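Milestone M4 deliverable, item 7.
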Amino acid sequence: MNLLKSMTGFATVQKTYNESEVTCEIRSLNSRFLEISLRTPRILNDLESPIKEIIRQKITRGKITYSLNFSSLSNEVQSLKIQADSIKAYKKLLEQMKKEAGIRTPIQLDHLLFFKDIISLEESSQVDEALSRFVFELTEETLEGLNKMRYQEGQFLHKDLKDRINVINRLTAEISNFAKSNPKAEFEKLYQRLISLIDQDKVDKNRLELELALIADRVDITEEVVRLKSHIQLFQEDIKTGSPVGKKLNFILQEMNRETNTMSNKSTMVEIAHRVVQLKEEIEKVREQVQNIE
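Output delivered:
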């Protein structure tokens, strides 16, 4: 039997690379689709697409936040560079401001330092094969930890879903038993009510009984019960197949809820009405849990 996998989880792995402490952290939350957000050093920008592809191979659904931090990248080339064009433009601007304000004080270096974009940090865009391989392996190891946690949470969800679907199955069986007598009970109720209100000698009893039978037939919920049982069986089979199955389970629950609403509208028996209310409550609880499944 395959396992269900929750969409929520967290994992972190820390290793050393060229005397730099490297931490990879991945968090996942519920989402209708797969959303991946990366936060890596700028020098590793070229690795973002391969990292996302590695994540897609392991995860099909959820909001993923990926973080990769190096305590230093001393082995990479970094340098500061003066932006000469920007300095000249700002100096000219300050000269104009002095003239307009009637200020004679000469422009000092500290005046220019207020403009942060006059100095830029240049980083080498070259990432060697060894660093790339290290990052990919670290990512895969962290994903394994994340999925382990998601599978563990998924087992709790599986047990809860199994218990709740058993309750739904039991309630449906009880409703099915009452449903067999529902049309007949409705017929008898309508018949006795009309007989007490009309002159029996002036009424065609055969026609009356036919009309009442047609009305009573409208409260027959046999088809809804059969379809609901079919949805329950499909749900039970799908939670055994394991993730990714969250979207399909959600769709099945929508159909189960639809059948339950129809039964609620058609049935007139108190015994059925009470159980339909319980059905709706259980289906809603299952729906809330399914939102957590990949």
